[in-house]
Write a structure and sequence with these properties.
Blueprint (H helix, E strand, L loop, with lengths): L3 H14 L3 E5 L2 H11 L6 E5 L5 H8 L3 E5 L10 H7 L4 E7 L9 H10 L3 E5 L7 E2 L2 E2 L6 E5 L12 E5 L2 H10 L22 H12 L1 H19 L5 E3 L6 E2 L5 E5 L5 H12 L25 H8 L1 E4 L7 H18 L1
Helix pairs in contact: 1-7, 2-3, 2-6, 8-11, 9-11
This protein binds pyridoxal-5'-phosphate (PLP).
C-alpha cells in the first residue's frame, strides 16, 4: 500500500496535467466524493449535467449535498450555458463539469469564467477525458480539481482505480488523509472520518505502465475516429460531432447523433443480429434512472433528445481498420433501411 508505484503514477499525472498535486485513489467516484467533501457541499447544491453517469449525482448525495441537474448543449455535449446560469442559487457550492465521451467543450472559457464569477468550486470529471485537450489546455488543468477513472473501459486501466489532480495543496493534504482512514501522516493519529480509498501498489504498478502507453492509445483511438469520420461524413440519417482543429478528443467513445426519424433501438438490434456489431447509446439521462427520477423537472429536453439519438460505435485500442470499415458499411446500410 502507498509505495513507490503509487508515487510514480502520481508524478506522471502531475507532469502530464502540469499541476503540482496528484492523489491516487480507488475510483473516480471516490475522487469525486473526496473533492465534494473538501469543498464543503454538505447542505448546499451542486450543478451536475443531466447527461452523464449516475455517479456524478451519487457522489454529491454521499457528500451530503443536493444535485441540481443542468441541461445539455447538443453541439458540445457539455452544459447548456443558459440553463447553467438559471440553476445557480445562493446555495450553490460547486459545479461538476464532465467531458463526456472525451470531448471538451469549445465553450470551456465561459464555463471557467462562470465558476469564477459565482465563486463556485469547479470539479472536472475527466473519467472519459484523460489525454484530451482543447486549445492546448489539458482536460483536468482548467478547474480547481479534476477526477479520473481507471475502470477497465477507460483511457488507461488498473482494473478499477482513480486519481485527483489539483493545484491546491490543502486539497492534496485532505485527500491524502481521507483516502487512508483519515490518518494524519505526521502524527499517525486519526483526525478525520476517512475510508480505505487508496490505490494499492498492485494496481498502481499496472497504472504506471499503462500511463507509459497513453500516447499510443490516444493515437490509435484518434486514428479510428478519423476513419469513422471519413466513412460516415455526409451520410443520410446521422450527424457527426463537430471536432474542430483546436480540440483533441480522447475518444473514450466514438458517437454519432442519429436523425429523429431513425429508430435507434431497431437499428441497434439490426446491427447486433445481422452484423454481430455492438452499438449503444452514450448514457441514459441520469434523471431517468429510478433513484434519481425525482430530479426530473421536465425541462431537460436537450439531454433527453441528444442522448436518446446518440449511438456509440465500437471503439477500443485493439480495433483493426477492416473492422472499422465493416461497422461503417453496416451502419450506412441499416440506417438507409430505416429512413
Ligand atoms: C463520467 C463518469 N464519471 C465517473 C465515473 C465513475 O468512474 P469509476 O468507475 O472509476 O468510479 C464514470 C464511470 O463510467 C463516468 O462515466
Amino acid at each position: 500500500m502507498q509505495g513507490p508505484y503509487a508515487e510514480k503514477l502520481e508524478q506522471l499525472f502531475c507532469d502530464r496535467i502540469a499541476v503540482p498535486h496528484a492523489i491516487s485513489v480507488n475510483s473516480c467516484t471516490t475522487a469525486l466524493e473526496i473533492c465534494l467533501q473538501y469543498y464543503g457541499v454538505s447542505g448546499g447544491e451542486v450543478l451536475v449535467p443531466s447527461g452523464s453517469f449516475v455517479t456524478d449525482i451519487s457522489a454529491v448525495t454521499w457528500s451530503g449535498g443536493e444535485a441540481v441537474l443542468v441541461d445539455m448543449n447538443p453541439e458540445t455535449l457539455a452544459f447548456d450555458l443558459e440553463d447553467l446560469s438559471r440553476k445557480v442559487t445562493s446555495k450553490t457550492k460547486a459545479i461538476i463539469w464532465v467531458h463526456l465521451i472525451g470531448i471538451m467543450s469549445f465553450e470551456y472559457a465561459q464555463i471557467v469564467e462562470f465558476a469564477r464569477k459565482h465563486d463556485l468550486a469547479l470539479i472536472e470529471d475527466c473519467a472519459h477525458a484523460l489525454g484530451a485537450s482543447i486549445d492546448g489546455h489539458q482536460a483536468g488543468a482548467l478547474g480547481d480539481a479534476a477526477c479520473y477513472s481507471f475502470y477497465p473501459t477507460k483511457m488507461i486501466t488498473t482494473g478499477s482505480g482513480g486519481m485527483i489532480t489539483t493545484r491546491d495543496s490543502a486539497l492534496d493534504r485532505f485527500a491524502r488523509e481521507l483516502r487512508i482512514f483519515g490518518r494524519n501522516p505526521e502524527s499517525g493519529k486519526v483526525g478525520r472520518v476517512g475510508n480505505d480509498w487508496f490505490l494499492d501498489e498492485i494496481r498502481a504498478c499496472v497504472g504506471y505502465f499503462q500511463m507509459g502507453e497513453l500516447d499510443d492509445f490516444l493515437e490509435r483511438r484518434r486514428a479510428i475516429a478519423r476513419r469513422y469520420d471519413e466513412l460516415l461524413q455526409n451520410q443520410p440519417g446521422l450527424r457527426l460531432l463537430d471536432v474542430s482543429d483546436a480540440l483533441k478528443p480522447a475518444y473514450y467513445q466514438y458517437a454519432v447523433i442519429l436523425d429523429g426519424s431513425v429508430n435507434r433501438e431497431v437499428l441497434i438490434g439490426n446491427l447486433r443480429e445481422k452484423h454481430g456489431i455492438a452499438a449503444k447509446g452514450i448514457y441514459l439521462p441520469t434523471h431517468k434512472e429510478t433513484i434519481f427520477e425525482h430530479l426530473d423537472n421536465g425541462a431537460l429536453e436537450m439531454t433527453e433528445d441528444t442522448l436518446g439519438r446518440s449511438l456509440c460505435l465500437p471503439m477500443f485500442v485493439g480495433l483493426c481498420d477492416n473492422y472499422v470499415e465493416s461497422v461503417a458499411k453496416a451502419l450506412i446500410t441499416e440506417i438507409r433501411q430505416l429512413l
